[in-house]
Write a structure and sequence with these properties.
The complex is a heterodimer of chains A (776) and B (124). Chain A has 25 helices and 24 strands. Chain A has 776 residues and is an alpha+beta fold. In chain A, the strands form five sheets. Chain A has a six-stranded antiparallel sheet with strand order 2-1-6-5-4-3, with helices on both faces. In chain A, strand 1 and strand 2 form a beta hairpin. The longest helix of chain A is centred in the middle third of the chain and has 54 residues. Chain B is globular and about 30 Å long. The two termini of chain B are 17 Å apart. Chains A and B meet through helix 18 and helix 19 of A and helix 1 of B.
């Protein structure tokens, strides 16, 4: 490709006739040019044709070329007008001696005229290059000698002055002509001389050859150029560099002095010069903004008409906007829109400082080049877009990965055990703490179904595993607020506090997460606390036994008569001893309930009987004041039996009734009523006492809480009663609550529920329990 | 006169019980630990035995167990009088063969009443 390109360059840029002839003779490119040359040689004597040189001019731009034909005797038989101009003949006829006198070194000049070769000369201040070629002529030969000016640029690039007699054969560009072709040429030339016939009919032929040659040349130029452009455009992904080198190729091929490729910026529709040729500096990366917008000037016209344009003289064209302060002076212009599909991407424009430089034929080439550039630009933009999206995606992915690994690290690092299952029940996360608490290696657990672990942690853990399975099997069945929160005792003796929750996202079940903590030491602490309380209670009871016993005996009068005052004082001691006893009993009760040391013996209970017993118990309590109280019981005769531990339900009723009694003034009323509500029995104990202010209602079930009321303070109480009641009711799966306005005399209603005994569920054990209950 | 053997390590409480029972018309045999109590049971053959649970040298449970293991003392009713009031403790007391389990602190008149009841039931 490169070699072809070079040859191509030669065709259009190097304007030496001999060079062209050589190329033609060598048959490398255009065989069709051979007849043209034959014609040319035939007309050597018809100087008007040479002088008119319309044929040659087409291929050899006249500003570039001077040539003459010299016979072997040294007589110049033809010279073109450029010879006069170049050598400053001032109307004189060209002869070798004079020409030799104007250039240096003249020996080389003579050599060039007598044998084929190539040499450089100084002509005044100029540097010129001469080439000669031998053409057979009669019995002798004629030498065609041509000259061209060498631009500084060329000079610098080519070999230095010394090699002025180098042979044509040495260059890559010019090959040795085929001797046969040369002979044919010579024969032809001789024939011309001999016959000396005017060949009028050849004029037409010449014209057609000329057209055809030109067409072919253009076609070739076009193909070659496009091939080069495509090669350039596809050679690399560095888009702006490609565009620059492509533009250089186009500029080169078209023979322009300046070229620019302006591209619309995606997004803001501003034009930027992405590549330029011939201007002082190449555009910086990212291009240079255009002084014109996409609607102005020649650029604007091309963009809005979407059409290639050729302008012989921009100064005569109304579309041209001459920018101020420019050092270059464009005259000819040729340009095309860069379009792909119906998307306008930019404009390709080339200039030349002389009028009429570009030809119509080049318009097609420019448009084709612009189309290629459009593809490249579009590709680059797509590539850019893709890369941006890729970067964005990868950074998103990276962020997400960082976030995920961070979350995972946190889960791994926390001291609580974490166990995560997916929607199929497979364990996906099992952190370090979980490993040590459950005494299982992560590797044995990850990826396995929770089914494998049902029995592994002991019976108590099965509720935990079962809950995971239930949720997994029926993700719809649970309320997202559902959680599992229990203490689980493992076979190894440790106790875990497990919190299990479903992982939900918009009603979609992702799995479950269990967070658990080893609370063995807490349980141990709790146990020690209970033990301590039990011990302390026991130790308190011993001295209290003495106090109470001796005071009772004194009060009984067994140890002798007492005065009124002594009796009263001893009564105070007795009351407070009683109070202390209750406190110790309550404390012990509470600590045992909290430690889970109380096991309920659940059985069907008749609330009627129970209330009756309790009433009797209350009536038998020592009455220290002479308060009268009316007690109403309203329990339907067909009320279902409740499920409860008789001792504990009795304790609940006693506590609530004693409270009602204590916190109601004389002549009060206490009502007990029971109703069946759903699967529960609700018991309401209403009094018309002092009531409980709403702000205190939240605290009355707290340990040691006592209301801020004179009557409360005056009453012997521990502040533990309701706390115990609350816990006992919870143990029965019931609830307790209070309603009170807090206004004196309106009293309060304490309500609690206990489950109705389900005979079908307890059918097997019922008879035994019931029988036992009856036996007591 | 009916004879009641008492085992109680707290001196004050032993005196209180003695006073109460004597006031109630009983002959009292006081001991202050389980081993002595077991000795005295064989020697004295009381009508009722009142045992504290927590005592030096031998617990009340053990004393009761041994009394119930011997033919000559098996039929003597045993009553526990203890500050240990937890269900399990009370249950253990009954399991050892006691007829009653009275919690400390106790009311002297109620103690007398319960022991009277036991002894009168015994007669029937």
């Amino acid at each position: 490709m490169l070699v072809a390109g070079k040859m191509f360059d030669t065709m259009i840029d190097v304007s030496s006739l001999s060079l062209s002839i050589t190329l033609i003779l060598s048959g490398l490119i255009f065989c069709s040019l051979l007849p043209q040359l034959l014609t040319l040689v035939r007309r050597v004597r018809q100087k008007d044709i040479f002088g008119g040189n319309s044929l040659l001019k087409l291929h050899l731009p006249n500003h570039y070329e001077a040539y003459f034909l010299v016979e072997s005797g040294g007589r110049i038989i033809y010279s073109n007008p450029m010879v006069k101009e170049m050598f400053g003949l001032n109307g004189k006829k060209a002869n070798l001696e004079f020409l030799a006198s104007t250039i240096q070194p003249s020996e080389s000049f003579f050599a060039l005229c007598s044998q084929e070769g190539k040499a450089r000369f100084n002509l005044g201040k100029r540097l010129i290059e001469g080439k000669s070629y031998l053409i057979p002529h009669d019995s002798t030969e004629a030498m065609l000698v041509s000259f061209r000016k060498i631009e500084l640029r060329d000079y610098n690039q080519q070999s230095p002055m010394g090699s002025h007699s180098e042979k044509f054969t040495s260059g890559k560009i010019l090959d040795t002509p085929d001797p046969e072709q040369v002979n044919l040429f010579g024969v032809d030339l001789q024939n011309v001389y001999k016959n000396n016939e005017p060949m009028l009919s050849t004029r037409e032929l010449e014209k057609r050859v000329q057209q055809r040659t030109h067409q072919l040349q253009m076609e070739h130029q076009r193909t070659e150029t496009l091939l080069r452009i495509m090669t350039e455009l596809s050679s690399s992904l560095d888009f702006e560099r490609i565009l620059q080198s492509t533009l250089e190729v186009i500029n080169d091929v078209i023979g322009a002095s300046h070229a620019t490729c302006m591209v619309l910026q995606p997004g803001n529709n501003k034009l930027r010069h992405l590549a330029t040729v011939g201007y002082s500096n190449p555009p910086p990366p990212g291009g240079m903004p255009s002084a014109l917008n996409m609607k102005q000037g020649l650029v604007g016209w091309i963009m809005s008409n979407r059409q290639a344009v050729l302008i012989d003289d921009v100064l005569e064209d109304e579309r041209w906007i001459q920018l101020p302060n420019t050092w270059y002076h464009h005259r000819s212009a040729i340009g095309a829109p860069i379009i792909i599909g119906d998307q306008l991407l930019g404009v390709l424009l080339l200039y030349y400082p002389e009028v009429g430089h570009f030809s119509e034929e080049q318009l097609d080439l420019i448009q084709a080049a612009a189309n290629q550039m459009a593809i490249a630009i579009k590709n680059a933009q797509l590539f850019h877009l893709t890369r941006e999206q890729k970067d964005e995606l990868s950074s998103l992915l990276r962020d997400q990965r960082v976030e995920t690994s961070r979350s995972r690290s946190i889960l791994e690092a926390i001291a609580d055990g974490v166990l995560v299952t997916d929607q199929r029940g497979e364990i996906t996360l099992f952190n370090h703490s979980a490993e040590s608490m459950l005494e299982l290696k992560r590797a044995e657990v990850i990826g396995r179904s929770i089914d494998h672990f049902s029995g592994l942690f002991g019976g108590f853990a099965s509720a935990w595993m079962d809950t995971i399975k239930t949720w997994m099997d029926e993700p719809i069945s649970f309320n997202p607020l559902n959680t599992f929160s229990e203490q689980v005792s493992l076979d190894n003796g440790s106790v875990l506090s497990v919190h299990l929750a479903p992982v939900m996202n918009n009603d979609e079940f992702y799995g479950t997460v269990s967070v658990f903590r080893d609370i063995s030491h807490l349980v141990e602490v709790d146990r020690l606390k209970s033990e301590f309380v039990a011990t302390v209670s026991h130790e308190l009871r011993t001295p209290m036994t003495s106090i109470k016993g001796y005071v009772d005996i004194l009060l009984m009068g067994v140890a002798g008569d007492l005065t009124e005052q002594q009796l009263r004082f001893l009564s105070v001691v007795q009351d407070n001893t009683q109070r202390l006893t209750i406190l110790v009993n309550d404390l012990l009760d509470l600590s045992r309930i909290e430690a889970g040391q109380i096991n309920l013996t659940l059985q069907p209970l008749d609330l009627h009987d129970l209330v009756e017993e309790v009433m009797g118990e209350i009536e038998s309590l020592p009455v220290t004041d002479d308060k009268s109280m009316r007690l109403t019981v309203n329990i339907p005769i067909d009320l279902p039996r409740i499920t409860g531990d008789p001792e504990r339900v009795r304790q609940i009723l006693v506590n609530l009734l004693v409270n009602a009694y204590n916190y109601t003034q004389s002549e009060g009323q206490i009502k007990i009523q029971a109703t069946s509500v759903g699967e529960e029995i609700q018991v309401d104990i209403q009094d018309n006492g002092i009531g409980i202010p709403p702000k205190e209602q939240n605290h009355i079930f707290d340990r040691f809480y006592r209301g801020d009321n004179n009557l409360v303070i005056a009453t012997a109480g521990t502040g533990l009663g309701l706390s115990i009641v609350n816990k006992l009711i919870n143990m029965h799966n019931g609830r307790i609550w209070v309603q009170s306005s807090g206004i004196q005399g309106e009293g309060s209603i304490f309500s609690f529920t206990l489950p109705i005994y389900d005979f079908s569920q307890h059918a097997l054990t019922m008879s035994e329990d019931y029988a036992e209950n009856l036996n007591r | 006169m009916r004879k009641i053997l008492i085992a109680e390590d707290e001196r004050d409480i032993l005196d209180l019980i003695m006073f109460t029972l004597q006031f109630g018309g009983y002959d009292v045999v006081p001991t202050s630990n389980g081993v002595d109590a077991l000795d005295m049971v064989h020697k004295e053959q009381p009508d009722l035995i009142l045992l504290d649970v927590r005592m030096p040298r031998m617990s009340g449970y053990e004393v009761c167990k041994q009394i119930k293991a011997k033919d000559d003392t098996r039929d003597i009713p045993v009553v526990f009088l203890s500050a240990k009031g937890q269900e399990a403790e009370v249950t253990t007391g009954y399991e050892m063969g006691a007829v009653d389990y009275i919690l400390k602190p106790f009311a002297p008149d109620q103690l007398l009443e319960r022991l009277d009841n036991i002894l009168s039931n015994q007669e029937v």
